[in-house]
Specification:
Shape: globular
Number of domains: 3
Order of helices and strands: EEEEEEEEHHHHHHEHHEEEEEEHEEEEH
CATH architecture of the largest domain: 2-Layer Sandwich
Strand content: 15-25%
Number of strands: 19
Distance between the termini: 57 Å
Structural class: alpha+beta
CATH topology of the largest domain: Chloramphenicol Acetyltransferase
């Protein structure tokens, strides 16, 4: 018999740790190759860790809700045949791993019992960030003031190190321990207390729901949101899609929806207005070199996730369609990889999928703009022709553009959707796919 160490795999660039959310297999259970052993969550996405061998799970090294570093051994699987290490060697490795876990637990306990008490904040901080803050004497009140560049505004190692570099020449924002808790309490306490009756029911927010809620609030507090709206005649696009969709399904084995058509048009529009493809870093503007489109997708539980189409401006319509369908299908099945939901530079959300004619979406930080596609509707419209004007039935939609008024003025925000309108309304109904 041999023993195989199941390690936490690499979860994508910039992801160094994950939290164990549940053990799918229990000690003593038989495991087949590719069986999911454990489910983990990063600040990017939830993932499953499969087994690369078949055997029996004989030891679990980390409990549920424990934060584990990438590359650490999380479980031991007993397999048939000879292993590369003896049982005694494996046991020594396991003991060493357990010792490290115990050290981590002690460090975490020390952090919690000192000034960095996370019970005074709803914000999530990794053990690494907590340890750095503890060593540098940063209280939770001050830590809460640091802008995070990670998913959902999470403070990363680089964020806190950069803050420490600037902190030397700047006074701390929090001068004492008593001032900050009062401010936090004022923000959290509703002006009108929530009362409940016997008919009411308390529903706990999911982990992802809490992250989304915080991300939305942080975005509104960070960016000066302004919206522009425009009506677009997509009659030619509707006619063209109806003409080619059956042939496309037969040829490619998948559906042609409106989403990839609009995503391709958005990518073309960004190329014409590159200053919408930026991010804000303090008093600096970062102009993105790639056009990476985020595509908001609804999950079965009602939450949203935003997979990213990398280098979207380089895709033709067939390539865009395949990317959109693949990411949407795997998003609904919770099969996205961490790298596939990060790196977005501009986001598109389809509120029309729920029947809404328009929406005012919240910007997906650290981006500076987001586009909402309204429902396509048949509308009476004035049609201009060389022979004169007449009333006709046209397929129309309203597009909403939310942008950060700190760096995107009304001219750019409005011109962006005007260009998008021109691209979509000039659609060639005779083009091939």
């Amino acid at each position: 018999m041999a023993k195989y160490e199941l390690k936490l795999p690499k979860m994508g660039e910039s992801v160094a740790e994950a939290t164990i959310t549940s053990w799918v297999k229990e000690v003593g259970e038989t495991i087949e190759i590719d069986d999911t052993v454990v489910e983990v969550a990063t600040d990017k996405v939830d993932s499953e860790v499969p087994s690369e061998v078949e055997g029996k799970l004989i030891e679990i090294l980390f409990d549920k809700d424990t934060v584990v570093q990438v590359g650490e051994t999380i479980a031991i699987i007993e397999t048939e045949g000879d292993g590369g290490e003896s049982d005694s060697e494996v046991k020594e490795d396991v003991k060493a791993a357990v010792v490290e876990v115990e050290k981590s637990i002690e460090v975490a306990k020390e952090v919690v019992t000192t000034s960095l008490d996370t019970t005074s904040s709803d914000r999530f901080y990794s053990p690494l960030v907590k340890n750095i803050a503890q060593k540098e004497g940063i209280l939770i009140d001050e830590l809460d003031t640091i802008n995070g560049s990670g998913k959902d505004g999470r403070v990363t190692k680089n964020d806190i190190l950069s803050y420490l570099e600037n902190r030397v020449n700047q006074p701390k924002k929090v001068e004492n321990k008593e001032a900050a808790p009062v401010a936090v309490k004022e923000v959290k306490t509703p002006s009108t207390p929530v009362t409940m009756s016997g008919e009411d029911q308390i529903i706990e927010m999911s982990r992802m729901g809490k992250l989304i809620a915080k991300h939305m609030v942080d975005s509104v507090q960070t960016s000066a949101h302004v919206q522009s709206f425009i009506e677009i005649d997509v009659t030619n696009i509707v006619k063209w899609r109806n003409k080619v969709k059956d042939a496309y399904l037969k040829r490619e084995g998948e559906k042609l929806t409106f989403t990839p058509i609009f995503m391709q048009a958005v990518a073309q529009t960004i190329k014409k207005h590159p200053m919408i493809n930026i991010a804000v870093d303090g008093d600096k503007i970062i102009k993105r070199g790639n056009v990476n489109l985020g595509m908001a997708a609804a999950l079965p539980d009602g939450n949203l996730i935003v997979p990213v189409i990398k280098n979207a401006d380089q895709l033709n319509l067939v390539g865009m369609t395949k990317q959109v369908n693949d990411l949407a299908n795997r998003a609904r099945a919770n099969k996205l990889k961490p790298d596939e939901i990060q790196g977005g530079t501009y986001t598109v959300t389809n509120v029309g999928g729920f029947g809404s004619i328009m929406g005012t979406p919240i910007i997906n930080q650290p981006q500076v703009a987001i586009l909402a596609l309204g429902a396509i509707r048949k509308m009476p419209s004035v049609v201009e022709t060389p022979e004169g004007d007449f009333i006709g039935i046209r397929q129309k939609m309203i597009v909403s553009h939310s942008y950060d008024h700190r760096v995107v003025n009304g001219a750019l925000g409005g011109m962006f959707i005007k260009t998008l309108k021109e691209i979509l309304e000039s659609w060639d109904v005779n083009q091939d796919l």
